[in-house]
Amino acid sequence: MTTERTPQTFVILGANGDLSSRLLLPGIGSLVESGQFTDLHLVGCDRQELTADEWKATLDGSLEEAGIDPEVRQKLASTTSYEQADVTKAADLARLLEDHGGSLVLYFALPPAVTITACQELSKLAVPPGTRLALEKPFGQDARTAAEFNELLAGMLPESQIHRVDHFLGLATVLNIVGLRFANRTIEPLLNNHHVASVEIVWDEDLALEGRGGYYDHAGALVDMIQSHLLQVLGFLTMEAPSAIEARDIRDGTARILRATSIWNDDPARFSRRARYSAGQIGDRQLPSYRDEEGVDPSRETETFAEIVVGIATWRWAGVPFRLRSGKALGNPRKEAIINFRPPEHLPVGLSGMRRPDRFRIGLGFGADKLRVDLTVNGPGDPWSLDPATLEADLGPGSLSEYAEVLKGILNDDPTLSVRGDAAVECWRIIDPVRRAWDADEVPLLEYPAGSRGPSGWPEAGLPG
Ligand code: NDP
Fold first, then answer.
1. Which of 30, 77, 354, 418 satisfies CB 3.0 to 4.6 Å to 163 for a cystine?
2. What domain count does the chain have?
3. Does 248 share its domain with 337?
Protein backbone atom coordinates (compact mmCIF):
# COMPACT_ATOMS: atom_id res chain seq x y z
CA MET A 1 0.00 0.00 0.00
CA THR A 2 1.11 3.53 -0.65
CA THR A 3 2.06 5.65 2.29
CA GLU A 4 0.18 8.64 3.56
CA ARG A 5 1.31 11.99 2.16
CA THR A 6 0.59 15.26 3.86
CA PRO A 7 -0.57 17.94 3.84
CA GLN A 8 -3.42 17.46 1.44
CA THR A 9 -6.40 19.59 0.53
CA PHE A 10 -9.72 17.78 0.27
CA VAL A 11 -12.40 19.83 -1.45
CA ILE A 12 -16.01 18.65 -1.27
CA LEU A 13 -18.02 20.07 -4.17
CA GLY A 14 -21.64 19.99 -3.02
CA ALA A 15 -20.60 20.24 0.64
CA ASN A 16 -24.04 21.27 1.85
CA GLY A 17 -25.74 18.20 0.40
CA ASP A 18 -26.99 15.00 1.97
CA LEU A 19 -24.04 12.77 1.01
CA SER A 20 -21.55 15.24 2.40
CA SER A 21 -23.24 15.73 5.75
CA ARG A 22 -24.30 12.13 6.38
CA LEU A 23 -21.36 10.19 4.98
CA LEU A 24 -18.35 12.17 3.72
CA LEU A 25 -17.78 14.51 6.66
CA PRO A 26 -18.20 11.68 9.20
CA GLY A 27 -15.87 9.53 7.05
CA ILE A 28 -13.20 12.21 7.17
CA GLY A 29 -13.81 12.67 10.89
CA SER A 30 -13.28 9.00 11.60
CA LEU A 31 -10.10 8.90 9.47
CA VAL A 32 -8.64 11.79 11.45
CA GLU A 33 -9.88 10.20 14.68
CA SER A 34 -7.94 7.05 13.77
CA GLY A 35 -4.78 9.15 13.54
CA GLN A 36 -4.60 9.31 9.73
CA PHE A 37 -4.41 12.45 7.59
CA THR A 38 -4.29 14.63 10.66
CA ASP A 39 -2.91 17.55 8.57
CA LEU A 40 -5.81 17.40 6.12
CA HIS A 41 -7.14 20.76 4.99
CA LEU A 42 -10.85 20.29 4.43
CA VAL A 43 -12.61 22.72 2.12
CA GLY A 44 -16.38 22.86 1.77
CA CYS A 45 -17.62 24.21 -1.54
CA ASP A 46 -21.21 24.72 -2.63
CA ARG A 47 -23.23 27.26 -4.53
CA GLN A 48 -24.89 28.54 -1.36
CA GLU A 49 -23.36 31.59 0.32
CA LEU A 50 -22.12 30.61 3.81
CA THR A 51 -19.92 32.42 6.29
CA ALA A 52 -16.91 30.59 7.68
CA ASP A 53 -18.73 30.17 10.99
CA GLU A 54 -21.85 28.78 9.34
CA TRP A 55 -19.77 26.20 7.51
CA LYS A 56 -17.94 25.27 10.70
CA ALA A 57 -21.30 24.78 12.40
CA THR A 58 -22.45 22.50 9.53
CA LEU A 59 -19.24 20.50 9.77
CA ASP A 60 -19.39 20.24 13.53
CA GLY A 61 -23.06 19.23 13.54
CA SER A 62 -22.40 16.41 11.14
CA LEU A 63 -19.33 15.19 13.06
CA GLU A 64 -21.17 15.36 16.36
CA GLU A 65 -24.09 13.39 14.93
CA ALA A 66 -21.59 10.71 13.87
CA GLY A 67 -20.13 10.57 17.38
CA ILE A 68 -16.70 11.94 16.41
CA ASP A 69 -14.44 12.85 19.29
CA PRO A 70 -14.76 16.57 20.33
CA GLU A 71 -11.01 17.09 20.04
CA VAL A 72 -11.03 15.88 16.43
CA ARG A 73 -14.05 18.07 15.69
CA GLN A 74 -12.20 21.04 17.12
CA LYS A 75 -9.07 20.22 15.10
CA LEU A 76 -10.95 19.93 11.79
CA ALA A 77 -12.94 23.09 12.50
CA SER A 78 -9.78 25.07 13.20
CA THR A 79 -8.33 24.39 9.74
CA THR A 80 -11.38 24.06 7.49
CA SER A 81 -12.55 26.74 5.07
CA TYR A 82 -15.53 27.34 2.82
CA GLU A 83 -15.79 28.61 -0.75
CA GLN A 84 -18.96 29.61 -2.48
CA ALA A 85 -18.78 28.55 -6.12
CA ASP A 86 -21.00 27.49 -8.99
CA VAL A 87 -18.98 24.54 -10.23
CA THR A 88 -20.55 24.69 -13.68
CA LYS A 89 -18.66 27.96 -14.23
CA ALA A 90 -15.05 27.73 -15.39
CA ALA A 91 -14.13 30.99 -13.63
CA ASP A 92 -15.29 29.64 -10.25
CA LEU A 93 -13.40 26.40 -10.80
CA ALA A 94 -10.26 28.29 -11.84
CA ARG A 95 -10.46 30.29 -8.62
CA LEU A 96 -10.76 27.07 -6.59
CA LEU A 97 -7.67 25.60 -8.26
CA GLU A 98 -5.75 28.81 -7.75
CA ASP A 99 -6.68 29.00 -4.07
CA HIS A 100 -5.78 25.38 -3.37
CA GLY A 101 -2.58 24.30 -5.04
CA GLY A 102 -0.44 21.38 -3.92
CA SER A 103 -1.81 17.95 -3.24
CA LEU A 104 -5.49 18.21 -4.07
CA VAL A 105 -8.57 15.96 -4.04
CA LEU A 106 -11.77 17.20 -5.68
CA TYR A 107 -14.75 15.17 -4.47
CA PHE A 108 -17.83 15.62 -6.65
CA ALA A 109 -20.77 15.23 -4.23
CA LEU A 110 -23.12 16.86 -6.73
CA PRO A 111 -26.17 15.87 -8.74
CA PRO A 112 -24.86 13.63 -11.58
CA ALA A 113 -25.67 16.09 -14.39
CA VAL A 114 -23.88 18.89 -12.52
CA THR A 115 -20.82 16.64 -12.06
CA ILE A 116 -20.55 16.08 -15.82
CA THR A 117 -20.87 19.79 -16.61
CA ALA A 118 -18.32 20.62 -13.90
CA CYS A 119 -15.86 18.12 -15.38
CA GLN A 120 -16.40 19.53 -18.87
CA GLU A 121 -15.55 22.99 -17.54
CA LEU A 122 -12.62 21.66 -15.52
CA SER A 123 -11.18 19.98 -18.61
CA LYS A 124 -10.70 23.44 -20.13
CA LEU A 125 -8.39 24.43 -17.25
CA ALA A 126 -4.90 23.38 -16.29
CA VAL A 127 -5.61 20.84 -13.55
CA PRO A 128 -2.50 20.36 -11.35
CA PRO A 129 -0.88 17.01 -12.28
CA GLY A 130 -1.24 15.25 -8.88
CA THR A 131 -4.93 16.11 -8.48
CA ARG A 132 -7.32 13.25 -7.76
CA LEU A 133 -10.96 13.36 -8.84
CA ALA A 134 -13.53 11.41 -6.83
CA LEU A 135 -16.82 10.82 -8.63
CA GLU A 136 -20.00 9.51 -7.10
CA LYS A 137 -22.42 7.09 -8.65
CA PRO A 138 -24.24 7.00 -10.96
CA PHE A 139 -21.30 7.33 -13.35
CA GLY A 140 -23.05 8.18 -16.64
CA GLN A 141 -26.55 7.06 -17.54
CA ASP A 142 -25.79 4.07 -19.76
CA ALA A 143 -22.81 2.35 -21.40
CA ARG A 144 -22.44 5.03 -24.06
CA THR A 145 -22.51 8.05 -21.76
CA ALA A 146 -20.22 6.32 -19.24
CA ALA A 147 -17.70 5.66 -22.03
CA GLU A 148 -17.93 9.31 -23.15
CA PHE A 149 -17.40 10.47 -19.57
CA ASN A 150 -14.36 8.21 -19.33
CA GLU A 151 -12.93 9.80 -22.45
CA LEU A 152 -13.40 13.30 -21.03
CA LEU A 153 -11.65 12.33 -17.80
CA ALA A 154 -8.82 10.53 -19.61
CA GLY A 155 -7.98 13.82 -21.29
CA MET A 156 -7.48 15.43 -17.88
CA LEU A 157 -5.62 13.00 -15.61
CA PRO A 158 -4.29 9.42 -15.58
CA GLU A 159 -6.85 6.69 -14.79
CA SER A 160 -5.15 5.93 -11.46
CA GLN A 161 -6.12 9.42 -10.27
CA ILE A 162 -9.81 9.03 -11.19
CA HIS A 163 -11.72 7.47 -8.30
CA ARG A 164 -15.20 6.30 -9.26
CA VAL A 165 -16.66 5.74 -5.84
CA ASP A 166 -18.71 2.68 -4.93
CA HIS A 167 -18.86 2.62 -1.16
CA PHE A 168 -19.79 -1.08 -1.16
CA LEU A 169 -16.13 -1.68 -1.99
CA GLY A 170 -15.28 -0.14 1.38
CA LEU A 171 -17.65 -2.42 3.29
CA ALA A 172 -15.70 -4.70 5.61
CA THR A 173 -18.21 -7.46 4.87
CA VAL A 174 -17.53 -7.23 1.12
CA LEU A 175 -13.76 -7.08 1.64
CA ASN A 176 -14.10 -10.16 3.87
CA ILE A 177 -14.98 -12.13 0.74
CA VAL A 178 -11.35 -11.85 -0.37
CA GLY A 179 -10.00 -13.43 2.83
CA LEU A 180 -12.73 -16.04 2.94
CA ARG A 181 -12.12 -17.15 -0.65
CA PHE A 182 -8.37 -16.90 -0.95
CA ALA A 183 -7.10 -17.81 2.52
CA ASN A 184 -9.02 -21.09 2.85
CA ARG A 185 -8.03 -24.25 1.06
CA THR A 186 -11.39 -25.83 1.91
CA ILE A 187 -13.46 -23.15 0.18
CA GLU A 188 -11.84 -21.91 -3.01
CA PRO A 189 -11.57 -25.29 -4.83
CA LEU A 190 -15.36 -25.71 -4.52
CA LEU A 191 -16.26 -22.39 -6.07
CA ASN A 192 -16.86 -23.38 -9.68
CA ASN A 193 -19.51 -24.86 -11.95
CA HIS A 194 -18.67 -28.44 -10.91
CA HIS A 195 -19.93 -27.83 -7.40
CA VAL A 196 -22.03 -24.66 -7.40
CA ALA A 197 -25.64 -24.87 -8.58
CA SER A 198 -26.51 -21.18 -8.29
CA VAL A 199 -25.57 -17.97 -6.49
CA GLU A 200 -27.77 -15.22 -5.09
CA ILE A 201 -26.67 -11.72 -4.14
CA VAL A 202 -29.51 -10.13 -2.23
CA TRP A 203 -29.84 -6.67 -0.72
CA ASP A 204 -33.40 -6.48 0.61
CA GLU A 205 -34.01 -3.64 3.02
CA ASP A 206 -36.83 -2.48 5.24
CA LEU A 207 -35.91 1.17 4.57
CA ALA A 208 -38.09 3.05 2.11
CA LEU A 209 -37.18 6.42 0.58
CA GLU A 210 -35.97 8.22 3.72
CA GLY A 211 -36.66 11.61 2.15
CA ARG A 212 -34.69 10.87 -1.03
CA GLY A 213 -37.66 10.38 -3.36
CA GLY A 214 -36.50 13.10 -5.76
CA TYR A 215 -33.25 11.22 -6.41
CA TYR A 216 -34.58 7.67 -6.19
CA ASP A 217 -37.47 8.18 -8.59
CA HIS A 218 -34.93 8.93 -11.34
CA ALA A 219 -32.83 5.88 -10.51
CA GLY A 220 -34.88 2.92 -9.21
CA ALA A 221 -33.61 -0.30 -7.67
CA LEU A 222 -31.91 -1.56 -10.84
CA VAL A 223 -29.65 1.47 -11.25
CA ASP A 224 -29.35 2.45 -7.59
CA MET A 225 -28.35 -0.99 -6.33
CA ILE A 226 -27.72 -3.61 -9.02
CA GLN A 227 -25.89 -1.60 -11.70
CA SER A 228 -23.33 -0.42 -9.19
CA HIS A 229 -23.14 -2.14 -5.82
CA LEU A 230 -24.32 -5.68 -6.46
CA LEU A 231 -22.32 -6.11 -9.66
CA GLN A 232 -19.21 -5.02 -7.73
CA VAL A 233 -19.99 -7.67 -5.10
CA LEU A 234 -20.37 -10.19 -7.95
CA GLY A 235 -16.88 -9.24 -9.12
CA PHE A 236 -15.34 -9.92 -5.70
CA LEU A 237 -17.25 -13.16 -5.29
CA THR A 238 -16.21 -14.64 -8.63
CA MET A 239 -12.87 -13.13 -9.70
CA GLU A 240 -9.78 -15.32 -10.02
CA ALA A 241 -7.31 -15.17 -7.13
CA PRO A 242 -5.29 -11.95 -7.31
CA SER A 243 -1.58 -12.35 -6.79
CA ALA A 244 -1.53 -9.32 -4.48
CA ILE A 245 -4.01 -6.92 -2.91
CA GLU A 246 -3.07 -4.20 -5.34
CA ALA A 247 -5.08 -1.97 -7.60
CA ARG A 248 -4.02 -3.62 -10.85
CA ASP A 249 -4.61 -7.21 -9.70
CA ILE A 250 -7.95 -6.57 -8.06
CA ARG A 251 -9.32 -4.32 -10.78
CA ASP A 252 -8.14 -6.58 -13.60
CA GLY A 253 -9.83 -9.48 -11.79
CA THR A 254 -13.20 -7.83 -11.32
CA ALA A 255 -13.18 -6.18 -14.79
CA ARG A 256 -12.58 -9.57 -16.43
CA ILE A 257 -15.62 -10.99 -14.66
CA LEU A 258 -17.82 -8.03 -15.56
CA ARG A 259 -16.74 -8.28 -19.21
CA ALA A 260 -17.86 -11.93 -19.22
CA THR A 261 -21.20 -11.24 -17.52
CA SER A 262 -24.51 -10.86 -19.32
CA ILE A 263 -28.20 -11.46 -18.79
CA TRP A 264 -29.03 -15.16 -18.68
CA ASN A 265 -29.71 -16.51 -22.19
CA ASP A 266 -29.58 -12.88 -23.39
CA ASP A 267 -33.28 -12.81 -22.51
CA PRO A 268 -33.99 -9.80 -20.29
CA ALA A 269 -37.76 -10.13 -20.70
CA ARG A 270 -37.63 -13.54 -19.04
CA PHE A 271 -34.73 -13.10 -16.63
CA SER A 272 -35.56 -9.80 -14.99
CA ARG A 273 -38.41 -8.69 -12.74
CA ARG A 274 -39.56 -5.40 -11.32
CA ALA A 275 -42.08 -4.26 -8.74
CA ARG A 276 -42.91 -1.31 -6.51
CA TYR A 277 -44.43 -1.13 -3.07
CA SER A 278 -47.99 -0.19 -2.27
CA ALA A 279 -49.15 1.14 1.12
CA GLY A 280 -48.33 -1.06 4.09
CA GLN A 281 -46.76 -1.30 7.51
CA ILE A 282 -43.26 -2.18 8.70
CA GLY A 283 -43.13 -2.56 12.45
CA ASP A 284 -44.90 0.54 13.72
CA ARG A 285 -44.17 2.54 10.55
CA GLN A 286 -47.11 3.16 8.21
CA LEU A 287 -45.83 3.64 4.66
CA PRO A 288 -47.79 5.25 1.86
CA SER A 289 -47.80 3.67 -1.56
CA TYR A 290 -44.56 4.48 -3.45
CA ARG A 291 -46.60 6.36 -6.04
CA ASP A 292 -47.79 8.74 -3.27
CA GLU A 293 -44.34 9.38 -1.75
CA GLU A 294 -42.93 12.92 -1.89
CA GLY A 295 -40.83 13.56 -5.00
CA VAL A 296 -42.29 10.61 -6.93
CA ASP A 297 -43.87 10.92 -10.35
CA PRO A 298 -45.93 7.70 -10.69
CA SER A 299 -45.97 7.94 -14.47
CA ARG A 300 -42.24 7.28 -14.44
CA GLU A 301 -43.03 3.73 -13.29
CA THR A 302 -39.89 3.51 -11.19
CA GLU A 303 -39.33 0.14 -9.55
CA THR A 304 -38.44 -0.25 -5.87
CA PHE A 305 -37.65 -3.94 -6.24
CA ALA A 306 -35.53 -5.36 -9.06
CA GLU A 307 -34.07 -8.72 -9.89
CA ILE A 308 -31.88 -9.93 -12.73
CA VAL A 309 -30.33 -13.32 -13.49
CA VAL A 310 -26.91 -13.21 -15.12
CA GLY A 311 -24.38 -15.75 -16.32
CA ILE A 312 -20.59 -15.46 -16.45
CA ALA A 313 -19.01 -16.84 -19.60
CA THR A 314 -15.76 -18.19 -18.13
CA TRP A 315 -14.43 -21.72 -17.76
CA ARG A 316 -15.04 -21.55 -14.00
CA TRP A 317 -18.57 -20.16 -13.98
CA ALA A 318 -20.27 -21.05 -17.29
CA GLY A 319 -23.70 -22.53 -16.62
CA VAL A 320 -24.12 -21.14 -13.09
CA PRO A 321 -27.00 -18.65 -12.75
CA PHE A 322 -26.40 -15.63 -10.52
CA ARG A 323 -29.47 -13.90 -9.19
CA LEU A 324 -28.94 -10.26 -8.16
CA ARG A 325 -31.81 -8.72 -6.29
CA SER A 326 -32.60 -5.65 -4.27
CA GLY A 327 -35.81 -4.25 -2.85
CA LYS A 328 -37.02 -1.52 -0.52
CA ALA A 329 -39.72 -1.48 2.17
CA LEU A 330 -39.61 -5.24 2.67
CA GLY A 331 -40.72 -7.04 5.80
CA ASN A 332 -37.89 -9.59 5.76
CA PRO A 333 -34.70 -7.56 5.26
CA ARG A 334 -31.58 -9.58 4.45
CA LYS A 335 -28.26 -8.69 2.93
CA GLU A 336 -26.23 -11.64 1.87
CA ALA A 337 -24.54 -13.62 -0.86
CA ILE A 338 -25.71 -17.23 -0.93
CA ILE A 339 -23.74 -19.92 -2.71
CA ASN A 340 -26.00 -22.91 -3.31
CA PHE A 341 -24.06 -26.12 -3.90
CA ARG A 342 -25.15 -29.02 -6.07
CA PRO A 343 -26.52 -32.11 -4.32
CA PRO A 344 -23.99 -34.85 -3.46
CA GLU A 345 -22.98 -37.06 -6.42
CA HIS A 346 -24.52 -40.04 -4.69
CA LEU A 347 -26.34 -40.29 -1.37
CA PRO A 348 -25.68 -43.76 0.07
CA VAL A 349 -28.83 -45.86 -0.09
CA GLY A 350 -30.20 -46.09 3.42
CA LEU A 351 -29.43 -42.46 4.38
CA SER A 352 -32.65 -40.52 4.36
CA GLY A 353 -34.15 -37.19 5.25
CA MET A 354 -31.77 -34.86 3.37
CA ARG A 355 -33.61 -31.54 3.14
CA ARG A 356 -31.31 -29.40 1.02
CA PRO A 357 -27.81 -29.32 -0.45
CA ASP A 358 -25.06 -27.36 1.31
CA ARG A 359 -24.80 -23.63 1.03
CA PHE A 360 -22.61 -20.76 2.18
CA ARG A 361 -24.36 -17.61 3.31
CA ILE A 362 -22.05 -14.61 3.46
CA GLY A 363 -23.54 -11.64 5.33
CA LEU A 364 -23.02 -8.33 3.52
CA GLY A 365 -24.51 -5.86 6.01
CA PHE A 366 -22.96 -2.63 7.20
CA GLY A 367 -20.77 -3.20 10.27
CA ALA A 368 -20.52 -6.76 11.55
CA ASP A 369 -22.31 -9.72 9.99
CA LYS A 370 -22.20 -13.52 9.91
CA LEU A 371 -20.86 -16.26 7.71
CA ARG A 372 -23.12 -19.33 7.82
CA VAL A 373 -22.33 -22.72 6.36
CA ASP A 374 -25.41 -24.92 6.01
CA LEU A 375 -24.52 -28.61 6.02
CA THR A 376 -26.27 -31.93 6.45
CA VAL A 377 -25.28 -34.21 9.35
CA ASN A 378 -26.44 -37.37 11.01
CA GLY A 379 -29.04 -36.05 13.39
CA PRO A 380 -29.91 -37.14 16.87
CA GLY A 381 -31.92 -40.32 17.33
CA ASP A 382 -31.83 -42.58 14.29
CA PRO A 383 -28.23 -42.20 12.99
CA TRP A 384 -29.28 -42.90 9.38
CA SER A 385 -31.76 -40.07 9.39
CA LEU A 386 -30.16 -36.79 8.24
CA ASP A 387 -30.66 -33.34 9.70
CA PRO A 388 -29.59 -29.83 8.69
CA ALA A 389 -26.85 -28.13 10.73
CA THR A 390 -25.37 -24.65 10.47
CA LEU A 391 -21.83 -23.55 11.34
CA GLU A 392 -21.72 -19.86 12.09
CA ALA A 393 -18.85 -17.39 12.38
CA ASP A 394 -18.78 -13.66 13.03
CA LEU A 395 -17.49 -11.40 10.29
CA GLY A 396 -16.19 -8.56 12.40
CA PRO A 397 -16.81 -4.91 11.60
CA GLY A 398 -14.02 -2.91 10.01
CA SER A 399 -12.24 -0.31 12.10
CA LEU A 400 -13.40 2.31 9.56
CA SER A 401 -16.80 2.99 8.04
CA GLU A 402 -17.17 2.07 4.37
CA TYR A 403 -16.88 5.72 3.31
CA ALA A 404 -13.81 6.26 5.49
CA GLU A 405 -12.23 3.16 3.88
CA VAL A 406 -12.88 4.52 0.39
CA LEU A 407 -11.67 8.03 1.33
CA LYS A 408 -8.49 6.52 2.75
CA GLY A 409 -7.78 4.92 -0.63
CA ILE A 410 -8.34 8.22 -2.43
CA LEU A 411 -6.11 10.16 -0.03
CA ASN A 412 -3.45 7.46 -0.26
CA ASP A 413 -3.53 7.69 -4.06
CA ASP A 414 -4.49 4.02 -4.11
CA PRO A 415 -7.36 3.16 -6.51
CA THR A 416 -7.74 -0.48 -5.36
CA LEU A 417 -11.22 0.23 -4.00
CA SER A 418 -12.26 2.61 -6.79
CA VAL A 419 -14.15 1.44 -9.86
CA ARG A 420 -12.04 1.51 -13.03
CA GLY A 421 -13.45 3.20 -16.13
CA ASP A 422 -13.88 0.01 -18.18
CA ALA A 423 -15.68 -1.74 -15.30
CA ALA A 424 -18.09 1.19 -14.94
CA VAL A 425 -19.02 0.87 -18.62
CA GLU A 426 -19.43 -2.93 -18.34
CA CYS A 427 -21.87 -2.53 -15.43
CA TRP A 428 -24.12 -0.41 -17.64
CA ARG A 429 -23.64 -2.77 -20.60
CA ILE A 430 -24.95 -5.63 -18.44
CA ILE A 431 -28.16 -3.86 -17.40
CA ASP A 432 -28.88 -1.76 -20.51
CA PRO A 433 -30.83 -4.63 -22.23
CA VAL A 434 -32.99 -4.95 -19.09
CA ARG A 435 -33.84 -1.26 -19.18
CA ARG A 436 -34.75 -1.52 -22.86
CA ALA A 437 -37.04 -4.50 -22.14
CA TRP A 438 -38.69 -2.59 -19.28
CA ASP A 439 -39.11 0.54 -21.39
CA ALA A 440 -40.81 -1.59 -24.05
CA ASP A 441 -43.13 -3.01 -21.33
CA GLU A 442 -41.92 -6.55 -21.89
CA VAL A 443 -41.74 -7.08 -18.12
CA PRO A 444 -44.79 -6.20 -15.99
CA LEU A 445 -44.35 -3.78 -13.08
CA LEU A 446 -45.82 -5.76 -10.17
CA GLU A 447 -46.85 -4.42 -6.75
CA TYR A 448 -46.18 -5.64 -3.22
CA PRO A 449 -47.46 -4.22 0.05
CA ALA A 450 -44.76 -2.43 2.08
CA GLY A 451 -43.75 -4.77 4.89
CA SER A 452 -44.41 -7.92 2.85
CA ARG A 453 -41.83 -10.35 1.44
CA GLY A 454 -42.28 -8.92 -2.07
CA PRO A 455 -44.65 -9.80 -4.90
CA SER A 456 -46.16 -13.26 -4.65
CA GLY A 457 -44.27 -15.76 -6.77
CA TRP A 458 -40.96 -14.18 -5.82
CA PRO A 459 -38.24 -14.84 -4.85
CA GLU A 460 -37.66 -18.50 -5.71
CA ALA A 461 -39.22 -18.63 -9.17
CA GLY A 462 -37.21 -17.75 -12.21
CA LEU A 463 -33.78 -19.04 -11.21
CA PRO A 464 -32.61 -21.40 -13.92
CA GLY A 465 -30.39 -24.36 -13.11
P1 NDP B 1 -27.85 16.74 -2.74
O2 NDP B 1 -28.78 17.29 -3.75
O3 NDP B 1 -28.32 16.55 -1.35
O4 NDP B 1 -26.52 17.64 -2.68
C5 NDP B 1 -25.91 18.20 -3.80
C6 NDP B 1 -25.32 19.54 -3.41
O7 NDP B 1 -24.69 20.10 -4.57
C8 NDP B 1 -26.37 20.56 -2.93
O9 NDP B 1 -25.93 21.27 -1.80
C10 NDP B 1 -26.51 21.47 -4.14
O11 NDP B 1 -26.95 22.78 -3.86
C12 NDP B 1 -25.09 21.49 -4.66
N13 NDP B 1 -25.02 21.97 -6.03
C14 NDP B 1 -25.88 21.73 -7.04
N15 NDP B 1 -25.49 22.37 -8.15
C16 NDP B 1 -24.36 23.04 -7.84
C17 NDP B 1 -23.48 23.89 -8.56
N18 NDP B 1 -23.70 24.18 -9.84
N19 NDP B 1 -22.40 24.38 -7.93
C20 NDP B 1 -22.15 24.09 -6.63
N21 NDP B 1 -22.96 23.31 -5.89
C22 NDP B 1 -24.04 22.78 -6.49
O23 NDP B 1 -27.32 15.36 -3.35
P24 NDP B 1 -26.64 14.15 -2.54
O25 NDP B 1 -25.69 14.70 -1.56
O26 NDP B 1 -27.70 13.24 -2.06
O27 NDP B 1 -25.89 13.36 -3.70
C28 NDP B 1 -24.69 13.82 -4.28
C29 NDP B 1 -24.13 12.71 -5.15
O30 NDP B 1 -23.83 11.57 -4.33
C31 NDP B 1 -25.09 12.18 -6.22
O32 NDP B 1 -24.36 11.82 -7.36
C33 NDP B 1 -25.69 10.94 -5.58
O34 NDP B 1 -26.14 10.02 -6.54
C35 NDP B 1 -24.49 10.41 -4.81
N36 NDP B 1 -24.83 9.56 -3.68
C37 NDP B 1 -25.61 10.04 -2.66
C38 NDP B 1 -25.89 9.24 -1.57
C39 NDP B 1 -26.72 9.74 -0.44
O40 NDP B 1 -27.00 8.94 0.48
N41 NDP B 1 -27.10 10.99 -0.41
C42 NDP B 1 -25.40 7.84 -1.49
C43 NDP B 1 -24.55 7.46 -2.59
C44 NDP B 1 -24.30 8.29 -3.63
P45 NDP B 1 -28.53 23.10 -3.93
O46 NDP B 1 -29.14 22.45 -2.73
O47 NDP B 1 -28.57 24.59 -3.89
O48 NDP B 1 -29.06 22.53 -5.19
1. 418
2. 2
3. yes
